[in-house]
Amino acid sequence: DIGSQKERVVTEEEWLQKWEMGNIGFHKEQGHPLLQKYLDVLLNGRSGLRIFFPLCGKAVEMKWLADMGHNVVGVEVSEQALKEFFSEHSLPYCEEPVPEISGGKMFQSTSGNISLYCCSIYDLSSSIVGKFDGVWDRGALVAVNPCDRQRYTSLMINLMEKNSSYLLVTVSYDPNKHKGPPFYVPESEIKSLFG
Fold first, then answer.
1. Which residues participate in the annotated binding site for S-adenosyl-L-methionine?
2. Domain 13-194 indexed as CATH 3.40.50.150
3. Each residue's pLDDT tens digit in the chain (195 positions)?
4. HEC states along 34-90?
5. Entry pTM
6. Domain boundaries defined on the chain
């Protein structure tokens, strides 16, 4: 039971405000230990993969995987977060509009192996970003409003190639004691969402 969280909605404006105020306790300066631990599961012996970072923020793992030779694509509503990612890693980039998305922008490293979309995740589709061999969901499903989980999961499934790997990190706690985000997503719900 997700308790009182079921009705909770966090707006895009609230997320943008978190970035503006520096209230980003969800950002980690070091690569996530679970990605390091389960990297073999994500890569499955393959190289040169297209890896998707939903709600990427300025995740340091994006550069880490790109440096290994993978193509990284992320999406984030905060332009500030994306610009901070490139500046903190001293990566030159170019910015261009995404014609299919009203107000959407894409920030791409000049090396071409990191492409970060600035828009709502729900503005994306496989016709815009293609399909992915792997997904690293460190903080997206737990940040998505509970009422949007089905929509989010359907999009993720649509963006995945047949033999994709999906690494998902969730948090476990009593949802009646914390309003979220991060939201509590019970294992039974993950199974029903992803099948």
1. 15-26, 55, 76, 120-121, 138
2. yes
3. 666 788 889 999 999 999 999 999 889 889 999 999 999 999 999 999 999 999 999 999 999 999 999 999 999 999 999 999 999 999 999 999 999 999 999 999 999 999 999 999 999 999 999 999 999 999 999 999 999 999 999 999 999 999 999 999 999 898 888 889 999 999 999 999 998
4. HHHHCHHHHHCCCCCCEEEECCCCCCCHHHHHHHCCCEEEEEECCHHHHHHHHHHCC
5. 0.95
6. 13-194
